[in-house]
Design a protein that fits this description.
Blueprint: H1 2-22, H2 28-40, H3 50-62, H4 71-82
Helix pairs in contact: 1-3, 1-4, 2-3
């Protein structure tokens, strides 16, 4: 349940960032750099886990890059974003 909640929150943030970017209110590359900084400062106990995976996915989406990582996680997040 916690994992699903975190992923849902991540998906909601991506939708928000994409919407604001499309309307010309924000440049989503600024968010990509922020997610990159969060990855750089990630505590060792969170590396290799879902937190790192979500941050990578969010950074990559803000840079319009294909996301990396576990294809099951990506497919699940993609399904959330389609709703």
């Amino acid at each position: 349940m916690l994992l699903e909640t975190l992923a849902g929150l991540a998906a909601a943030n991506i939708v928000l960032i994409e919407t604001l970017h499309e309307r010309g209110l924000v440049d989503k590359t600024h968010f990509a750099h922020a997610f990159g900084r969060a990855l750089d400062g990630l505590a060792p106990e969170h590396r290799g886990g879902m937190v790192e995976e979500v941050l990578h996915n969010m950074r990559d989406r803000c840079m319009n890059l294909p996301g990396g990582g576990d294809p099951d996680v990506r497919a699940w997040l993609d399904r959330l974003l389609e709703r």
